[in-house]
Amino acid sequence: MKNICFYFQVHQPFRFRRYRFFDIGNDHYYYDDYTNEGVMNKVAQKSYLPTNKLLLKLLKQYKGKFKVSFSISGVAIDQFKLYAPEVLDSFKELADTGYVEFLSETYSHSLVSLKDKSEFEAQVKKHSDAIYELFGQRPEVFRNTELIYSDELGADVHSMGFKGMLAEGAKHVLGWKSPNFMYTNAINPRLKVLLKNFTLSDDIAFRFSNQDWNEYPLTAEKYIGWIKALSPKEELINLFMDYETFGEHQWEGTGIFDFLENLPKVALSDKGLGFVTPGEAVKKLQPVSAIHVPHPTSWADEERDLTAWLGNEMQNEAFDKLYALLPKIQKCTADDILKDWAYLQTSDHFYYMSTKFFSDGEVHAYFNPFETPYEAFMNYMNVLSDFTLRLNAAVPESTVEQELATLSAVLQEKEKKLKKLEAELKRLGSGKKTTRRRTAATKTATRATTKTAAKAKAETASKTNKTASKKS
User: Fold this and answer.
1) How many domains does the chain have?
2) pLDDT digits over 152-208, tens only?
3) Are residues 412 and 277 in the same domain?
4) Which residues contact 398 (CB under 8 A, 6 or more apart)?
5) Is residue 111 part of a domain?
6) Of all residues in the chain, what percent are helix, strand and coil, respectively (each to 5)?
7) Which of 81, 241, 394, 422 is most buried (most C-beta within 10 Å)?
8) Radius of gyration of the chain from Cα atoms?
9) 137: helix, coil or strand?
10) For residue 217, cis peptide bond before it (omega within 30 degrees of 0)
C-alpha cells in the first residue's frame, strides 16, 4: 500500500523596519509593524483561513482516512496572537478533529542547529512546549528550519527524544535510491528519516499554475495517477510544502482549492492508497536502509544546500556576529532583549542577503522586502549593533561596559522624568504661551541631558581606546 504524507510549513518572519545608522543607540524598536500586520492579514484571508476551513471540512468528511501535518514556527504563532488570533483558533479546530499532527522545530525558525547545540535544544523545547500548550500534542517528529538535515543533526535530534525527522530527498544524497521509502539516520538508526519527494511536491507548490508547463492543467486525477504509477514497492510519498501554497503562492483563481478538495476523494477511491501523518509513518513503516548525509542539506534552490542563507561573506559575517553574542545572552534575564534575540535569529533575515542572482535568483527577489542584498545586510547589521549595545549594558563584563550600563540607566531615568514633566505641563498649562515656554524649557533640559550623555560616552570611548592601546 502507498501512504501519502502531507506536511505543511507555516511561517511568517517579523520584518525589520528601515533601521538607519543614526538610529543606533537612540531607537531600540526594530520592527515594521505596518508591513507585518498587513502581510499577516493578507495571507490569513487568502491562504490560512480558507485552507483551514476546507481542511476541516475534508477531515470531518473522511473521518480519519484523510490526514495532514503542520509545523508552525514560534515566530508565526507570536504574530497570530498579535494580528490574527482567529487563525490560531482555526488551527485549534483542526487539532480537535484528532486527524492532524503538529511537528516541532526551532521556536525562532533559526539556523542555530548549525552553531550551538545547547541553544538549539532550548529553542526546540520552547517550541514543543508552545505546541503542547496550544494544541495538546507533544511532538514526536522534528522538522528543522528550512528542512536542514545532516547525519550529525539527526543524531542530536534523536538525543532530544524525537523518533523521526523530515529531510530533503536531494538527488546528490539519494543517487539511484528513491525518496519513497522510510530511512534511518546513519549515526543513530533509531531515528527514522522521512525524505521529501521534491518532484511531486513542487508540482503543486511551484508548477501548478504555470501555463507553460507541459502537464498544465494539473488535476487531482492526473496527480494521483502519477502516484499510482510508481513502483508497487514504494510505500511512502512525502509531500512537503509551504502552507502559503494554497491561496497565496497559488491564487484561488488557479483552481488550487478545487484541486485540494478533490485530491482525497480521488486517492481514497483506490484501495491501494491511504494517508498518514509523519508520526504514524514512523510507527507503521520499516526502514529500508540508512541514508548518509555527511554535509547539511536543505529544501532551497537547485543545490539543496545552505547557500541560500550562508552562501556569501555578508551572510556569514552577520551569522557569526549574531552568535558571538550567545555567551552573554545565556546570562541575560531581560525579557525585551531575549524577545529581540529570538527574532534576530529568524532565517529569513539571512535569506534576504542572498546574492544568488543567477541560480534561483527570481525566487530570492520575490521573497525579499529589500531592493538589494547589500541593503538587507546593512539594515540587519545596524539593528544588530544597537542590540549589542543593549546587551552589553544589560550584561556588562568589563569596567567600560559597566560604566556604559550605569550611564544608560541614568539617562533612561532622566528621560522618564522629562516625559512626566512634559505631561504635567500640558495638563496644568494655563495658556498657549505658557505651554510654549515650558515646552521650550523642557527641550532645553533635554538638550543639556543629551550633551552630558554624549560627553560621558566620548570619555568612556577614550578610556576604551587608551586601554586597547596599552594592551597592544
Assistant:
1) 2
2) 999 999 999 999 999 999 999 999 999 999 999 999 999 999 999 999 999 999 999
3) no
4) none
5) yes
6) 55, 10, 30
7) 241
8) 26
9) coil
10) yes
Please identify, among 240, 257, 291, the residue that sits at the C-terminal boundary of a domain.
291
Task: Name the residues annotated as catalytic.
Answer: 146
| 346-402 confidence digits (pLDDT tens) | 999 999 999 986 444 455 455 578 999 999 999 999 999 999 999 999 999 866 666
Give the domain range for residue 420.
403-472
Cα 383–chain centre separation = 18
- What's the pTM? 0.84
CA distance 122 to 351: 23
What DSSP letter does each residue of 365-410 carry, written as one string?
HHT-SSSSHHHHHHHHHHHHHHHHHHHHHHS--SHHHHHHHHHHHH
Asked whether residue 337 is domain-assigned, the answer is no
CB atoms within 10 A of CB 461: 12
In a domain, 319, yes or no: no
Q: Which residues have CB under 8 Å from 232's CB, separation 6+? A: none
SS3 for 141?
A: strand
CA of residue 444 relative to chain centroid, distance = 45
